[in-house]
Design brief:
- The chain has 13 helices and 21 strands.
- It is α+β, with helices and mostly antiparallel strands.
- The protein folds into four domains: 166 residues, Zincin-like (2-Layer Sandwich), CATH 3.30.2010.30; 131 residues, Orthogonal Bundle (Neutral Protease, domain 2), CATH 1.10.390.10; 83 residues, Aminopeptidase N, middle-beta domain (Immunoglobulin-like); 64 residues, no CATH class.
- The strands form six sheets. A five-stranded mixed beta sheet has the order 8-9-10-12-11, with helices on one face. A four-stranded antiparallel beta sheet has the order 1-2-7-4, with no helix packed on it. Strands 19-16-15-21 form a four-stranded mixed beta sheet, with no helix packed on it.
- Strand 8 and strand 9 form a beta hairpin.
Length: 482
């Protein structure tokens, strides 16, 4: 329970009171068994000066005035997990939207009232989209979002009332780029994955955080297209891979020194990347139906990772133990090394894929082959220490392979492509921004003058602002080196 400037000792700083429950802190201000598998209904009464607004879970069912004071009664009649109970008090401006008749409100400091809808951009549209893909209409009576001062984290998915730090306080001009839409989507998707169905223990935390992280990407793809979503996928994967230089524990962890350790790049970014891979393998229909089965069968209950697997198996009629064993139970990640050998006499390309990590994975992947200016998709399954594929030349010209063209691999991949081959990849990836990004960055690393000139000329005029930005950043590095 946090009291912010309630003695008014700091000028121009609002007085606020707010709570933070996750992981196990709500027992500091109310009697509860402070575990994620504890659920209960709430009725919270708050007495405040009449100039202050209050917020809590569920519905405001009663207000009583007593002179300059007011008592607000908030009631949540569906059982929620212990850490998601909350309240907030402050001199907020409240801006209201609607979604299918339900209240969608933004509680912000009065100075930011004109920008509230921009700060929480597209919230009603997100609710509609997430309700559609899950097949579960937003399950709470309303959705509020509140911005507070001196918050101890980034944001928190309290049931029906998410709380955000003051990083959200931005003017419309500051929000002209992407703003904080990813965070808004993340906390909102938690209302299904984390609140409606909750990880039964911190060991299973990824059930909450991987879905919320992947929810950001699903919304981006829906609203802004594949290129924006793919770049985000790449950025999130890179955060995880950087983290593995220090440690790389399993996604599902039953042994840890402190529960706070579960809130890491593995539970979030790696978990989200695995869902992206799984989504690709299953396809939209089966993936979304599996989410629906998981949510409806476990509604308002704690769940384990195995429940998610069982939902998938019910929908697909297939055994997915192989996938969950290697991605959820195993530490580490795949490290693929791809070598291309050209036999000009036999007119044949030999591709050797080696798994460099200790424990082997089974990796269904989509590759692409460029030959005679056409692109064909290849289905690869990498499961042995070393896999070998051969492809004939076309009209005397060696083909170019683009492995993992869907970028499903939650791991590292290295290739021995030559600069000219990276240029071919760039030129034949007009609809694949990550293939172009890889080609651009590898040509830069190899410092081939002719290939660099060609690829940078193309990249600086690319249709993707991300590719143009990467090209400018790389050119700046070249200038600095000189």
């Amino acid at each position: 329970l946090y009291f912010i400037n309630t003695d008014y000792g700091i000028p121009n700083k609002p007085a606020q009171i707010w709570t933070q429950g996750e992981t196990e802190a709500n027992s500091h201000w109310m009697p509860t068994i402070d575990k994620p598998n504890t659920r209960f209904t709430t009725q919270i009464e708050l007495t405040v000066p009449d100039s202050f607004k209050t917020l809590s879970n569920g519905e405001l069912i009663k207000q009583t005035h007593n002179g300059n004071l007011r008592t607000d009664v908030w009631k949540m009649d569906k059982p929620i997990q212990a850490y998601a109970a909350m309240f907030a008090i402050g001199k907020f401006s409240v801006i209201e939207d609607k979604w299918r008749g339900k209240e969608v409100s933004y509680y912000v400091e009065q100075d930011y009232e004109p920008y509230a809808r921009d700060m929480f951009k597209n919230t009603p549209a997100m609710i509609e989209y997430f309700s559609g893909i899950t097949g579960v209409a937003y399950p709470w009576n309303k959705y509020n979002q509140v911005v507070v001062r001196d918050y101890v984290s980034g944001a928190m998915e309290n049931t029906s009332a998410s709380l955000f730090g003051e990083f959200m306080n931005q003017t419309k001009r500051e929000l002209d780029d992407y703003g904080s839409e990813d965070v808004v989507a993340h906390e909102l998707f938690h209302q299904w994955f984390g609140d409606y169905v909750t990880a039964e223990s911190w060991s299973n935390l990824t059930l909450n955080e991987s879905f919320a992280s992947y929810g950001e990407n699903l919304w981006r793809r829906h609203k802004y297209g594949d290129a924006s979503a793919d770049i985000q996928c790449s950025d999130e994967l890179e955060k995880y891979l950087q983290y593995t230089k220090r440690q790389d524990p399993p996604l599902l962890r039953f042994y840890y020194d402190d529960k706070e350790q579960m809130f890491d790049r593995v539970s979030y970014e790696k978990g989200g990347a695995i869902l992206y891979y799984l989504h690709g393998l299953m396809g939209d229909s089966a993936f979304y139906k599996s989410m629906n089965v998981y949510l409806t069968k476990n509604a308002l209950q704690p769940a384990e990772v195995a429940y998610w697997r069982l939902a998938i198996e019910e929908v697909t009629g297939q055994d997915w133990n192989w996938f969950f064993n290697q991605w959820y139970n195993k530490a580490g990640h795949p490290q693929l090394d791809i070598r291309y050998a050209y036999d000009d006499a036999a007119k044949q390309l030999t591709v050797t894929v080696t798994q460099k990590q200790d424990s082997l994975y089974v990796l269904p992947l989509k590759a692409e082959i460029v030959k005679d200016n056409t692109i064909q998709t290849l289905d690869w399954t990498i499961k042995k220490r070393k896999e070998v594929f051969t492809y004939p030349y076309t009209n005397g010209v060696a083909p170019v392979i683009m492995p993992d063209s869907k970028h499903w691999l939650v791991g590292e991949l290295t290739e021995n492509k030559l600069p000219a081959q990276w240029l071919v990849q760039f030129e034949h990836s007009s609809d694949n921004v990550l293939n172009r990004k890889l080609a651009l960055m590898n040509v830069y690393k190899q410092m081939d003058q002719q290939a660099s000139q060609n690829i940078f000329n193309k990249a600086l005029n690319d249709k993707s602002e991300d590719i143009r930005e990467i090209a400018l950043q790389l050119l700046q590095k070249v200038t600095v080196k000189k």
